[in-house]
Amino acid sequence: MASLDFEQEKANFNTYYESNHKQFIAAKDAYLGMIRTLIRQSDVGEVTKIEGRVKDKEECVKKFQRKYQGKLDADEQPYEIKDFISDLIGIRVVCLYEDEVPAVSALLQRHYRILNVTDKTSAVESTEDSFGYKGLHMDLALDPEAPCLAKNLPPLEISFEVQIRSLIQDAWSRLDHKIKYKKSIPVDLKRRINVLSALFELADREFKEIRNATSDLMQQATDTQISERVDGVLEVPGPTASPGSKTVNAFNFVPIAGHFFRDFSFEDQKVDDFVQDILEQDSTFQKADLHRCLNENLKVVRQYSEHVIAENPNRTFSAYTLIRHCLYLYDQERFERILTRRNSERFSLWLRGSRSAQAATAAEGTPQSV
Questions:
Q1: Nearest 10 degrees: Cα torsion 306, 307, 308, 313
Q2: What are φ and ψ of residue 54, in 5° steps?
Q3: Domain coverage including residue 86
Q4: Which residues does the UniProt record annotate as the domain RelA/SpoT (predicted)?
């Protein structure tokens, strides 16, 4: 029963906490599983981390004393500590970019009952001289309209807090918690912390802008590949044609290679490394050269791969391996090092044998003069 006796209520809370601790952990694990499933099945961007915890009982009591006890005592309003701890179970969702935070929030709001929302980003940005971590905090409870979500929950139904942050916001929050006595530090030290906070905010913004610029470049390369003839007969005018845009790069490589290898997934990091390998051997190699190289040589290279695999069933030829052989065949002087020495020797030997066989076949088909 609620009272104004803090020591008694603290003892009651400790009893409540200890007797239900296993159920708290089970509820935390259930909520984690549900949210992970929701995010995995939804298009909310790149979520890098989803983790949870059960708040320590001493932390719960300290938070109650700091935020609520003074006012409750002043108003002579009886209380039970557990009624004021909304984050006993906490879930943290870390997005890669800051503009993905609202998407995750909207997803959770569609599947849970919202008890409270604290937008720490707006709170910090609305104050000139304030510093602190950003993010969105939501107090949630199960929505009776979505019973399918609760089928794996333990009998104890309890509200929980979800913190949604970007990767940069999460990094700053961890550092921010290490800064002691923030309200009473000297002005010069507070200014240095504000500068650091601004740098984190700038990094968050720049990561997002770089992502957008990268997506735009990829889209431009794809649109250009569709609209122009890659042999250079038709050029695409306008602002998208920047200096050096004809040189092969990670953005225009994918649509060209993807045209020839439709079932192969070109991963960003591998594409970047592979294109760099090409440019290290020929810094002027253009996207038209790449298209011509594949168009003229892929058929022969595929025949070679079939020959190798027939003799060695355990061998595989990825798209990158096929492209390397095409580049070697396209210009053996420029791309001498695109294959290992052993592979280039095997390929050259096969080419000589193949050409000899073709010449012999052609000679047999030539009519003899009388």
A1: 70
A2: -100, 125
A3: 6-204
A4: 52-187
